[in-house]
Amino acid sequence: MTPEASSHKVLVGGRRIAYDEVTPVDPAGTVLFLTGLGGTRVAWRAHLPVFGRRYRALSLDHRDSGDSDPVEADYTTADQADDAAGLLQALGAAPAHIVGLSMGGFVALNLAVRHPSLVRSLTLVATSAGGASHVPPDPAGLESLRPDFTLRPAERALTTFRLITAPGWMDAHPELAARMAANAEAQPLSPAGYARQFRSTRTHDVTGQLAQVQVPTLVLHGDADPLVRYENGQHLARHIPGARLLTYPGTGHLPQLERFTDFNRDVLAFLATT
């Protein structure tokens, strides 16, 4: 039986970083899940028990979000990568398989470049190398980056998710949409916190360092992603040595939810080869 997820905090660089964990009796390794812009560790709560049957499965709240300590000064995706490195070191959990979604993929790439000894593999989900290579969002993706903070967190989240998932997907999955809305109510980012996190994404650029990534890498992308366009995933797969590109047709920016069963199966199969 897989244990229930437990929540903890660890001190990293003088700040507390919150994380969830599911660990079996004899784990085959560690998987660290990194969430995207505006999200918290609860975004991976349904995945932890699945991966936790075989691996020590962790998800963290980036600094200034969820239950991690707030900050006032701006920071970068490289700073967030250093936080993830500090967490892995503090927990004795390295080298780890890193699964990063969108902004979490930015952090994962920085982690692989800055702390290669801590990374066993990369799964890069709906993400980008940033910099001059980045293909910008389409109009719906751009609109999703301007959340309306006059709305309740649940309503704001549903509005955003409708913009970035495949057309019709939200209406076809009302129970899952309700769970996503409840997660948003539990740990909403403040307008100032969201603004700081958004500015951190603008610092991301590992375009010139992709050849340095020397771990097994799976690039997983939906070809209907309006926010981090499919071309960004193609670029990663072409420029990271040995990377494999897995395309989900007709899938938007949240393949881990839009293709939940396929995502879990495909990522677990990849991890088993590394």
Automatic annotation (TrEMBL):
It comes from the Bacteria. SUPFAM superfamilies: alpha/beta-Hydrolases (SSF53474). Gene3D superfamilies: alpha/beta hydrolase. One of its GO terms (molecular function) is hydrolase activity. InterPro entries: AB_hydrolase (IPR050471), AB_hydrolase_1 (IPR000073), AB_hydrolase_fold (IPR029058). Keywords: Hydrolase. Residues 30-259 form the AB hydrolase-1 domain. PANTHER family: AB HYDROLASE-1 DOMAIN-CONTAINING PROTEIN, HYDROLASE, ALPHA/BETA FOLD FAMILY PROTEIN. This is Alpha/beta fold hydrolase. It comes from Deinococcus navajonensis. The lineage of its organism: Bacteria, Thermotogati, Deinococcota, Deinococci, Deinococcales.
